Amino acid sequence: MTVAAAVQAIRARTGLTPEVAIILGTGLGALAEAIQIEVAIPYAEIPGFLVPTVESHAGRLLCGTLERRPVVAMQGRFHRYEGYDLDAVTFPVRVLRALGAETLIVSNASGGMHPEWAAGDVVLLADHLNFIGDNPLVGPHRSAGPRFPDMTAAYDAGLRTLARAVALEQGITLREGTYVAVAGPNLETRAEYRLLRAWGADLVGMSTAPEVIVARQEGMRVLGLSIITDLCLPDALEPATVERILAVARGAEPRLAALVRGVVHRLN
58-67, 93-102, 137-146, 240-249: which has the minimum mean pLDDT? Predict the structure, then answer.
């Protein structure tokens, strides 16, 4: 399926032209409650969109307004570990850009490897490492953007400054660090956590980096936010469960929602 076909299907349901696109990650789907929804389109009704197989990903495209600004939000994303190739995983990002969105706010749940951070902390992404073992730009060049996009500033400096200011005003503790994306779906061993930490990563997860790569190729400004849902400290490692991860994500979600609303409200 083509981007044009997906855009046409969405345009048949709404004339809204979004300024901001938002990707809601694991356990963060309820952030959608802050959006005044004009229309919610199941992914199954959009050509080229996959259907998420992960329990906490609703699989709907929400079109509406947030802080009086037109937005489009993915309530759930796709992952490499579901058996999808990265071209398909990132296809929605190209569609969001074609709809008109110039800014992408991407969120996720992650394991925290920084010894001074805690489960439930909200983290501003400053950079990432793509260790999924693949890249969404491999293959024929399918974008009007550059074949070899520069990733020097993958996460927009101006948006990060704005996020820090909003967090300070709202009394939200906001960490900042580097996210590493791995294939999953298993969680890492003690040795793997030590290696990833030694390579400079503060957080580990199974998404985001491919979406950001495509967003940058498409010329979008990107703001990345993560919720630490479990601690990944090799010398004090405890077994993690999906139930606990989702509970921590939901507990931190009000702070993430407030932060996103504040950023969207103050965007230029």
Answer: 240-249
Cα–Cα dist 238/65, whole Å:
41
* Count of domains forming the chain: 1
Domain span at residue 168 reads: 3-266
Say if strands 221-231 and 122-131 run parallel, antiparallel, or are unpaired. Answer: antiparallel
Phi and psi at residue 18, in whole multiples of 5°?
Answer: -75, 145
CATH code for the domain of 246: 3.40.50.1580
pTM: 0.95
Task: For residues 59 and 201, give the distance between their C-alpha atoms in angstroms, rounded to a whole number.
Answer: 29
What's the rounded Cα separation, in Å, for the pair 179 and 201?
Answer: 6
Distance (Å) of CA 62 to CA 3, 14, 100, 212, 254: 18, 10, 15, 20, 19
How far are the Cα atoms of 37, 98, 151, 193, 209 from residue 118, in angstroms, in the given order? 33, 38, 29, 16, 23
Task: Check: CB of residue 75 under 8 Å from CB of residue 32.
Answer: yes
- Note the pLDDT tens digit of each residue in 161-175: 999 999 999 999 999
Label residue 20 exposed, middle or buried (CB < 10 Å: 0-12, 13-18, 19+): buried
Q: Which residues pair with 123 in a beta bridge?
A: 175, 226
